[in-house]
Task: structure prediction
Amino acid sequence: MFNWSTPLRYLDLSLTFFSGEIPYSIGQLKSLNQLSLKACDLHGLIPQSLWNLTQLTHLDLSFNKLNGEIPSLLSNLAHLTYLDLEQNAFTGLILNMFHKLIKLEYLDISSNNITGQIPSSLFHLAQLSYLDLSFNKLVGPISKIEYCGFK
Result:
C-alpha cells in the first residue's frame, strides 16, 4: 500500500474514512517521525511491523477499535515523546515496557480495558508531564506516585 521514493517523515490520516486493520506495510516507512491514525475506524491488533518504526517521536492511534494487549515491543520506539492510545479496546496489563521510553512526555491510554496495577516503570519517566490512565480497570496502591519526577 505504501511505496514512496523519498523518505516520509510525517503521516497524518486522522479523521479519514479509512477502516479495517492497520496495514503491515506501514513498517516500511522507517524514516517516519510522526504517525497519526486518530479516529479512522481501525480495528484488530497493532501489526508487528509498526515496531520497526524506531524513529517515531509521535504516535497517535486514539479513537479506534484496536484490541489485544499493548505489545511489549512498544519499547523499541525509544524516541517517542508522544503516545496516545486513548479510547480503543486494549486489554490486559500495562507491562513494564515503559522504562526504555525515557523521552516520553505525553502518555494517554485512557478509556480501554486495561487491568492490573500501574507498573513502577511509569513512575520513573523523568520527562513525563501528561499521564492519563482513566476509565480502565486498574487496581492497587498509587502510593509510589509521590516519589516520581512528574512536573
In short: The chain has one domain: 10-147. The chain is about 0% helix and 25% strand. The radius of gyration is 15 Å.
